[in-house]
Amino acid sequence: MNLLRMDINSTAFDASAQANSLAGKPIRVAVIIGSNREGRYAPVISDWFLTRAEDFGGLDVDVVDVAGIDLPTALSFSPSDAVQAERAKVAQRLAAADAFVVITPEYNHSYPAGLKNLIDWHGAEWHAKPVGFVSYGGLSGGLRAVEHLRQVFAELHAVTLRDTVSFHGPWGQFDEDGQHTSPAEANTAAKSLLSRLTWWAHALRDAKSVRPFAA
User: Fold this and answer.
1) Is the pTM higher than 0.85?
2) Distance between alpha carbon 191 and the CA centroid of its chain, in Å?
């Protein structure tokens, strides 16, 4: 009985020590720009969100833009050396992230093909990490794209957040300099999203430091 108590106490102490070692490290957030469409509106939305993330503080942000990723649409179990090298560049950045924010438009009631391609070329990089969404589109504000993405990320053992930021008809909400003309509500939504994201990121990162995730 004494040995059992010593093991439990030792495990608890080690877990606490590991969690404490992560406490001062900023949360690493990969912000994924999901559109590579010609004439895309994504840069306006992403610039706005990145400013909100900077204002929030405590985050180490890496922008992953699908427009700059050259992965084939045909998945392969034995990709060429060139494809493996391209995938490795992105995979390292996704693996290093503690959390993700996906910025997505809505195309024909769903999300862009380039975004799905990025997701499908990776697996463990998404596991046991939180995913938030910033969407934009017509009357739905891109939320139909978000609902489809929730199903995809659930399959990849990721945790999607309830809180979202969505822009219904964003073309009339931002001026020619990319500034939101009535920012109060959107700013509040972004702060709520980032608050939830960092909570989940800390919780899951600490948990994995004690017990690695196994899919």
Assistant:
1) yes
2) 15
